[in-house]
From TrEMBL:
SUPFAM superfamilies noted in UniProt: UROD/MetE-like
Top enzyme class: transferase
Cofactor(s) it depends on: Zn(2+)
Active site: 698
Annotated binding of 5-methyltetrahydropteroyltri-L-glutamate, by residue: 16-19, 112, 519-520, 565, 609
Pfam families named in the record: Meth_synt_1, Meth_synt_2
Domain Cobalamin-independent methionine synthase MetE N-terminal as annotated: residue spans: 4-311
Organism (species): Paenibacillus thailandensis
The name this protein goes by in its record: 5-methyltetrahydropteroyltriglutamate--homocysteine methyltransferase
Parts of the chain that traverse the membrane: none
Domain Cobalamin-independent methionine synthase MetE C-terminal/archaeal per the UniProt entry, residue ranges: 430-752
Annotated family: Belongs to the vitamin-B12 independent methionine synthase family.
Sequence positions that bind L-methionine: 435-437, 488, 603
Length: 758
C-alpha cells in the first residue's frame, strides 16, 4: 500500500517560537536546561502535528538547534581548532561558537544551501580528527517513539553531499576523507539498526547536480558500505531540488528506496523512469508536493502524475512525499486573516502540504473517487485565484510584451557615454560613495512602528524621515564623500518596500521561513501582474538632492533581486515576471531622472541565487536576467549614470554577465575573496566603472586608513584608475552611527592618499 512521507518539517514554529527560544538563550534570558526543555516542546509539537494529520512515515532528526549541516559536522567531531574543543560530547557553547563566532574565534563560513535562500554552516575539515561524539538521529528516534509512539524515519545528511559542501581539503583527498567518514556513518546506522529503526533517509541532494564518474564510484562505495553495515535497515537514498543525473547508476545502488523530486526537475525524472523503468526490488519516494513553493498543488494534476508513475511502480512500493524538506516554506496559512480569500485559499504552507500528501496517498490507494469532494474543492480554490483581476492585466501584458521584444540598449556604448558623463559630473579621481543605506537606529525603527500603527500621521513621519536625511546629508558632506545617498530610512527591507508600492504583490502576516540560524525572512508573494502605480522613491531622493550641491544617487532594488527574494506565481514563466518588474522599475528610473536625479543605482545582490543547479540551464537564466536589468535602465539619457551593486556571493564566474548588464558603475562586495575577485576582473578586462568594497561592513570594527589604502593599491594594480570608485562593501543599515562615520572618514582619508599617488 502506498504511504505518505515527509522529508522534514520547518523548525521555526508557527509563531517563531524556535527563533525566540534561541535568541533568549543567547542573550542569557533562558538557562540551558530550560532551553533544552523549550526546544523539546517545540520538536514534539511538530511531530504531534504531523501525526495528527495522518502522515505515515514522519522524519525525525530534521530538527536542529541551528543547522543540520552543522549538526552533522559536530556529530563527527569536526570542530575547527580555534574553538578549543577537546573531544567528547560537543558543548552548546562550542556548537554556537562555530555558528556565530566567539570573542576569540571567528564563526565558520556560512553559505547557501543549493539554490535556496537557506544558509548552512560550512564544515572545515583541515586538521579535523573525525570521531563520533554522539548519535543525534538515534536520540531523535527514541524520543519520538517514547513520547508519541511514532515509528520515525531518522534523516541523515549523506557522506557525499557532506564532503562536497565541506571545505579545508583538496580534491585529491576526497577519497581519503570518505574513508575516514564512512566508518562513522556505518556506526551511526548500526546503532539505529540495533534500535529497530526501519527506514533511514540518507539525504544526497548533490545527486541532482552534475556528477563525475568518480563521484558515482564514490556513491557506490557509500551505498555498499552502509548497506552492508546495517543490512536490517532500509535506506532511502533521497535526492531533491532537481532531477538526478545518472539515473541508471543511481537506481542500481544497493539501497531499499530512491527518493526523487517530481516537482523541480520533474520532467527529467519522469523521462528517466519512462525510459529505464524502476527496479522491482525498490521503493520509490515520489516527491510530488512542492516543498519549496507556497501554492496549493492541483490535486487533480498530482493524482494524474501519480497514476503515470504508478505504471512503473506499484502501490506497495510507493511513498508519496514532499519534493524536499518543508524547511523552505512557512508553517501554516492559518494566521493569514488579512489576505483576500481567493488568494489565501490558493496557498499551502507546510501544514496544508501535509494534508495534500495524505489526500494524494489516499487517491493512490483507494482511487481518485475517494477524494472526489477534495478534488472539487481544490479545483475551485485554484479557479478562484485565477478569477482575481490582479492576476491578468491585459494592459500590462501588452506593454511588457512590446518592450521585451526590443533589445534593451543604451543609446551609446559605455566608451562613448563615459566621457560625456565625466564632463557632466566633474568627479575627482577615485570618487567616493556608499551603497545606499545608513544606520537604522532604534529611533528610526520606533518611528516607523508608530506610523504603521497609525499613531503618527504621514506628515509627522515624513518630517521625521526628512530630518534623518538632513542629518546624513550634512554628515556625508562633512566627511567629504563625492556622491551622496539619502540613506533609505523609509525602508525596512529592500524588497518589501518596493513590493508594497507595486501592484501584483501581497504580504503575509506570518509567512516566515528560516534563512540562517535564528534569522527568518518573510518573502512577499507575487500573485498578480506586476505594475507601476506611482513614484516610489522620488520624494525622498529629490528632497535629499535639494539639500546639497553634490550629486545624490537614487536607489532602487533590481527586478531579479525582487523576484528571487519573493514567492512567485507559477502560472507564468519567471522570465515574464522579471520583465514585468523591469518594466515597472524602468518607470521609476524615468521618474527619478525627470525629477533631476542623474545617478541611479539599481541593486542586484540576488542574481546569483536564481542560477539553476544544472549548468545547461544557466546561460538561459543569465541571459534573461541581464536583459531584465537592461530593460530597467536603458532608457536614460547619456549623461545619466547607472550604478549597480552586488554582494553576498561569488561572482568570479559571472563577470561576462555583469559586463553585459552595461551599468556605468558597479560596486561589489569583496571582503570574502578579495584577491580572487580582482584576479577575475583582470582576466576578463572589465572596462566599466567599478568600486570594489574597501571594507567589510559586517563587522563593527572601524578599519584603519592604512588597511584600506593597501586594498586600494592592490586593486589598482589591475584596474584602470580612471574607472575606479571607492566605497564600503555593502549598505550600512545594521551598523552604529559613530562607527559608520569613523569608518567613512578613514575611507575618505585613504582615498586622499591614493589621489596623491596617482
Ligand atoms: N542599497 C542597499 C543598502 O545599502 C543594498 C543592500 C544590499 O546589497 N543587500 O542597504
Ligand atoms: Zn550589498
Amino acid at each position: 500500500m502506498a504511504i505518505s512521507s515527509v522529508l522534514g518539517y520547518p523548525r521555526i514554529g508557527a509563531e517563531r517560537e524556535w527563533k525566540k527560544a534561541l535568541e533568549a538563550f543567547w542573550s542569557g534570558k533562558l538557562e540551558e536546561e530550560e532551553f533544552h526543555g523549550k526546544l523539546k516542546e517545540i520538536r514534539l509539537a511538530h511531530l504531534r502535528k504531523q501525526q495528527a494529520k495522518g502522515i505515515d512515515l514522519i522524519a525525525v532528526n530534521d530538527f536542529s538547534y541551528y543547522d543540520h549541516v552543522l549538526d552533522t559536522a559536530v556529530m563527527f567531531g569536526i570542530v575547527p581548532k580555534r574553538f578549543e574543543y577537546e573531544g567528547g560530547a560537543v558543548p552548546l557553547s562550542v556548537y554556537y561558537g562555530m555558528a556565530r563566532g566567539t570573542k576569540d574565534a571567528p564563526a565558520c563560513e556560512m553559505t547557501k544551501w543549493f539554490n535556496t535562500n537557506y544558509h548552512y554552516i560550512v564544515p572545515e575539515l583541515d586538521g579535523a580528527e573525525p570521531a563520533l561524539t554522539g548519535n543525534k538521529p538515534l536520540a531523535a528516534y527514541r524520543e519520538a517513539k517514547a513520547e508519541l509512539g511514532i515509528e520515525g524515519k531518522p534523516v541523515l545528511l549523506g557522506p557525499l553531499t557532506f564532503l562536497k559542501l565541506s571545505k579545508g581539503y583538496s580534491a585529491a583527498d576526497t577519497d581519503a576523507w570518505l574513508e575516514r567518514l564512512l566508518p562513522l556513518y556505518a556506526q551511526v546506522l548500526r546503532e539505529l539498526e540495533q534500535e529497530g529503526v526501519q527506514w533511514v533517509q540518507l539525504d544526497e541532494p548533490i545527486l541532482a547536480t552534475a556528477l563525475t564518474d568518480e563521484d558515482v564510484e564514490r556513491l557506490r562505495k557509500v551505498c555498499y558500505t552502509l548497506a552492508e553495515a546495517a543490512p536490517g535497515l532500509n535506506l532511502m537514498l533521497q535526492t531533491y531540488f532537481e532531477s538526478v543525473e545518472r539515473y541508471s547508476d543511481i537506481v542500481a545502488l544497493p539501497v531499499k528506496g530512491i527518493g526523487l523530486d517530481f516537482v523541480h526537475g520533474s520532467a527529467g525524472n519522469v523521462k528517466s523512469i519512462e525510459a529505464h523503468g524502476f527496479p522491482a526490488d525498490k521503493v520509490l519516494g515520489a516527491g510530488i508536493v512542492d516543498g519549496r513553493g507556497i501554492w496549493k498543488s492541483s490535486l487533480r494534476d498530482k493524482a494524474a502524475l501519480l497514476r503515470k508513475i504508478g505504471a512503473y511502480v506499484p502501490n506497495d512500493r510507493l511513498m508519496v512525499q514532499s519534493s524536499c524538506s518543508l524547511l523552505h516554506v512557512p508553517v501554516t496559512t492559518e494566521y493569514e486573516t488579512e489576505l483576500p480569500a481567493q488568494l489565501k485559499g490558493a496557498l499551502a504552507f507546510a501544514d496544508e502540504k501535509l494534508d495534500e500528501l495524505v489526500l494524494l496517498t489516499k487517491a493512490a490507494v483507494s482511487g481518485e473517487a475517494s477524494i472526489a469532494s477534495e478534488l472539487k474543492q481544490c479545483d475551485d480554490a485554484l479557479h478562484a485565484l485565477e478569477s482575481l483581476e490582479e492576476r491578468v492585466r491585459a494592459d500590462i501584458r501588452q506593454e511588457v510584451a512590446a518592450v521585451s521584444q526590443t533589445n534593451p540598449e543604451r543609446a551609446l556604448p559605455f566608451a562613448e557615454r563615459h566621457p560625456i558623463q565625466q564632463k557632466q559630473w566633474q568627479l575627482p579621481l577615485f570618487p567616493t560613495t556608499t551603497i545606499g543605506s545608513f544606520p537604522q537606529s532604534a529611533d528610526v525603527r520606533k518611528a516607523r512602528q508608530l506610523w504603521r500603527k497609525g499613531e503618527w500621521n504621514d506628515e509627522r513621519y515624513g518630517a521625521f524621515i526628512r530630518e534623518q536625511i538632513d542629518t546624513w546629508i550634512r554628515l556625508q558632506e562633512e566627511i567629504g564623500l563625492d556622491v551622496l545617498v539619502h540613506g533609505e530610512f523609509e525602508r525596512t527591507d529592500m524588497v518589501e518596500f518596493f513590493g508594497e508600492k507595486l501592484a501584483g504583490f501581497a504580504f503575509t502576516k506570518n509567512g516566515w521561513v528560516q534563512s540562517y540560524g535564528s534569522r527568518c525572512v518573510k518573502p512577499p508573494v507575487i500573485y498578480g501582474d506586476v505594475a507601476f502605480r506611482e513614484a516610489m522613491t522620488v520624494e525622498e531622493t529629490k528632497y535629499a538632492q535639494s539639500r546639497t550641491q553634490r550629486p545624490v544617487k537614487g536607489m532602487l532594488t533590481g527586478p531579479i533581486t525582487i523576484m528571487n527574494w519573493s514567492f512567485v506565481r507559477e502560472d507564468i514563466p519567471r522570465e515574464q515576471i522579471a520583465y514585468q518588474l523591469a518594466y515597472a522599475l524602468r518607470q521609476e528610473v524615468e521618474a527619478l531622472e525627470s525629477a533631476g536625479i542623474g545617478m541611479i543605482q539599481v541593486d542586484e545582490p540576488a542574481v546569483r541565487e536564481g542560477l539553476p543547479l544544472k549548468e545547461k540551464d544557466q546561460a538561459e537564466y543569465l541571459a534573461w536576467a541581464v536583459k531584465a536589468f537592461r530593460m530597467t535602465t536603458c532608457t536614460v539619457r547619456d549623461t545619466t549614470q547607472i550604478h549597480t551593486h552586488m554582494c553576498y556571493c561569488e561572482f568570479h564566474d559571472m563577470i561576462a554577465s555583469i559586463e553585459a548588464m552595461d551599468a556605468d558603475v558597479i560596486s561589489i562586495e569583496t571582503s570574502r575573496s578579495h584577491g580572487e575577485l580582482i584576479h577575475s576582473f583582470e582576466e576578463n578586462t572589465y572596462k566599466m566603472g567599478i568600486g570594489l568594497g574597501v571594507y567589510d561592513i559586517h563587522s563593527p570594527r572601524v578599519p584603519r586608513v592604512e588597511e584600506m589604502a593597501a586594498m586600494i593599491d592592490r586593486a589598482l594594480r589591475v584596474l584602470d584608475p580612471r574607472l575606479f570608485w571607492i566605497n564600503p562593501d555593502c549598505g550600512l543599515k545594521t551598523r552604529g552611527k559613530e562607527e559608520t562615520v569613523d569608518s567613512l572618514r578613514n575611507m575618505v582619508e585613504a582615498t586622499r592618499l591614493a589621489r596623491e599617488k596617482y
